[in-house]
């Protein structure tokens, strides 16, 4: 599944080809993805200038004066800017034609992605109630400590709660908790302020690094330029249950926490 770094990498890859362009036409090859595609996408987008391509959590927003197209890559979605004569494949569901002559093409074999519409001045319901961006200064240890007060949920589940902070998926939560030395099963309300500072710092460092590397984790994910995303060598715990800890040599433990596969080191994480 594309995680936040892949979505941010996609945004950065699209930006020079999309921002400042006018939409020539919108071609929907099916009426729905995960949800029905609102009529506004087809009716309001053509003729509009795309001022910016923003990211909020794992959503991308193409902003115009008429509103914003809101895109989510779901499990297997991919956005590319292609020459118009590029052959159309069975999973190429949406083309947004640009005045450059190219098309912004949304491809999604599993169709868990979405294309929605946010009217000007409004916040789409899917974006309401989200916590801060992990790389925003508003996200820090004090923020985590404040929200964790009295919470008995495992700290890993807490960290993956989109109302606490957005975009920290299973892989990054596991890796950040390892870097901060925190047992993922520990109750969120029983993590010290100092350790929350370390956790927030680890989340920022891991995500920022993953973004510089072009995103990480999905084998069938392709960057907008067609280069495969990088993977795996830098994972300390995720997916390694039963293998030795790269730091201390103890066997890594695995369990399901909050319905998600989780791995940690019983010596390095307390
Ligand atoms: Zn260890």
Account of the protein in words:
With 270 residues, this protein is of the alpha+beta class. The chain has six helices and ten strands. It binds zinc ion. Zinc ion binds next to loops.
Structural class: alpha+beta
Q: How big a fraction of the residues is strand?
A: 15-25%
What is the CA–CA distance across the termini? 29 Å
**Total strand count, please?**
10
H/I helix tally: 6
Give the secondary structure arrangement, pairings included.
Blueprint: H1 4-18, E1 23-28, H2 39-44, E2 52-56, E3 59-64, E4 67-72, E5 78-82, E6 92-98, E7 103-107, E8 114-118, H3 141-148, H4 155-159, H5 170-180, H6 193-212, E9 253-257, E10 260-264
Antiparallel strand pairs: 1-6, 2-3, 3-4, 4-8, 5-7, 6-7, 9-10
Helix pairs in contact: 1-6, 3-6, 5-6
The structure holds zinc ion.
Zinc ion is lined by residues 245, 247-248, 250, 265, 267-268.
Q: Quick recap of the structure?
A:
The chain is α+β, with helices and mostly antiparallel strands and 270 residues long.
Question: Which key features would you list for this structure?
Answer:
270 residues, four-stranded antiparallel β-sheet, 6 helices, 24% helix, binds zinc ion, alpha+beta
């Amino acid at each position: 599944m594309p995680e936040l770094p892949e979505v941010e990498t996609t945004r950065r890859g699209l930006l020079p080809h999309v921002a400042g362009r006018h939409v020539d036409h919108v071609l929907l090859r099916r009426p729905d993805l995960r949800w029905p595609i609102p009529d506004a996408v087809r009716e309001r987008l053509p003729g509009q200038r795309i001022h910016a391509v923003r990211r909020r959590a794992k959503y991308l927003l193409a902003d115009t004066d008429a509103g914003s197209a809101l895109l989510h890559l779901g499990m297997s979605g991919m956005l590319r800017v292609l020459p118009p004569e590029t052959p159309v494949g069975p999973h190429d569901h949406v083309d947004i034609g640009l005045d450059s002559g190219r098309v912004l093409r949304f491809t999604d074999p599993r169709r868990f992605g979405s294309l929605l519409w946010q009217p000007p001045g409004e916040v789409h319901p899917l974006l309401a109630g989200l916590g801060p961006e992990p790389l925003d200064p508003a996200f820090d240890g004090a923020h985590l400590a404040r929200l964790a007060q009295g919470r008995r949920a495992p700290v890993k589940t807490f960290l993956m709660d989109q109302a606490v902070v957005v975009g920290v998926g299973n892989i990054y939560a596991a890796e950040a908790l390892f870097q901060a030395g925190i047992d993922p099963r520990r109750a969120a309300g029983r993590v010290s302020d100092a350790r929350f500072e370390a956790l927030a710092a680890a989340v920022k460092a891991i995500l920022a690094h993953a973004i510089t590397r072009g995103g990480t984790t999905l084998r069938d994910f392709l960057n907008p330029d067609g280069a495969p995303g990088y993977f795996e060598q830098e994972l300390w715990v995720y997916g390694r249950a039963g293998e030795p800890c790269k730091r201390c040599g103890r066997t890594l433990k695995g369990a399901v926490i909050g319905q998600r596969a989780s791995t940690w080191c019983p010596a390095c994480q307390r």
